[in-house]
Amino acid sequence: MFRLILIIGTGGFIGTVSRFLASRYIQNHILSAFPYGTFLVNIVGCFLIGLFFGLSEKGDIMNSDWRMFLTVGFCGGFTTFSTFANENIALLRDGDFFYFALYTSLSVFLGLMATYIGNLITKIL
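The structure corresponding to this sequence follows.
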């Protein structure tokens, strides 16, 4: 059990640092009230988790340690629902109702689609 916690924790650390760097880079290059950094990181994370779960279902491509490292650890650290929720509250507080509706609806729809497409790619390969 301790070994599994270390595997997931290491993946989470790498995912969290990757999210911070990617989100900061994106947000610094796109000046807007819309939270592009978190939005893009979450969509990419959804695609990756779909891809990773699809690969793990193929049998011998990925063992359970790698699946836990990549899905629970890396993707869990890379994507963030709490930041998504906080940014939506900020948009509402600032009266940016259009961006609130756009961010929420696109995040949910594109997140689901990205996860599906990531998983579908593994079925095609």
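The mean pLDDT is 94.
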